Amino acid sequence: SLKSFEVFQPAWILIMSILWVSLKQTLGRFTNNSGRIVGLIHAISMVIIGTPVLFLLGAKSFAYSDMFDSFTTNYASIQISCNVMCYTSVGYFLMDSYFLVHRAYLKHHIGAIVVWLVAASHHDTSLVHGAIVIALFEIGAILVQLSKVFSKFLWFRFMVCIGYTGTRVSLAWYYGFIFYTCLQLFHECSLFIQVSYIPAFASLLFLLSLNAKWTYLQWRALYKICLSDTPAMDFYSYHQK
């Protein structure tokens, strides 16, 4: 039954990984860019699954108190969505780790897998927060990919910069909700969970500084293009440098 999906079941990760391998192998028969296409499908699926969870939390309003009320009221259905999102994402990273051409990305993939699994086994709220944060991250990643496709259109690059900045501001705002949730439930947590929030929030501060850095680089790249007569470099390529 659907209710069984409220409980995290690691076996589904293996099933999703097999499905990702099948999809990549099938696409590989028709194109040499199967890896990039599958990566884009993964990013879009994260957005499709994660953003409805965010909007459900903000169904009444996006004030932290109202979001928390919605969180507790709709926890069961939210947990199902976030479990599915975790299975899908970890399955993808397991598959892609095997097929990676650029081995430098392996650390990222291993890190993503570890964070997902830790969130799934941490406090009840952690996987939900992780799902929404990943959805916001992936919106920015999709915009960066689009900047490569339409690199010659400065007006489009400007829109990408605005959208990317919006996702990063949204992340900073959502980090505030994570902290608010933690305060509301802190007294119910075990000592281990309470202590574990120290490195967790330290990591969030690091991500916040990293987000600010990449937002600055986005606008800096656009500014350089506007002042230069050289062909526009998309932010994806700029990022790879």
Helical segment count: 9
Task: Outline the low-pLDDT stretches.
Answer: none
Structural class: mainly alpha
- Rounded to an integer, what's the Rg over CA atoms? 19 Å
Give the terminus-to-terminus CA distance: 49 Å
Mean pLDDT: 84
Helix content: over 70%
| H/E topology pattern | HHHHHHHHH
Strand content: under 5%
Task: Work out the number of β strands.
Answer: 0
Instruction: Tell me about the largest β-sheet.
Output: none
Name the overall outline: globular
Helices and strands in order:
Elements: H1 11-28, H2 34-57, H3 64-73, H4 75-99, H5 106-121, H6 126-149, H7 154-185, H8 191-227, H9 235-240
Write a concise keyword list for the protein shown above.
0% strand, single chain, 241 residues, mainly alpha, 80% helix
Please describe what this structure looks like.
With 241 residues, the chain is mostly helical. It has helices at residues 11-28, 34-57, 64-73, 75-99, 106-121, 126-149, 154-185, 191-227, 235-240. Helix 2 (34-57) packs antiparallel against helix 4 (75-99). The termini are far apart. The mean pLDDT is 84.
Summarize the structure in short:
The chain has 241 residues and is mainly α. The chain has helices at 11-28, 34-57, 64-73, 75-99, 106-121, 126-149, 154-185, 191-227, 235-240. The model has no long low-confidence stretch (mean pLDDT 84).
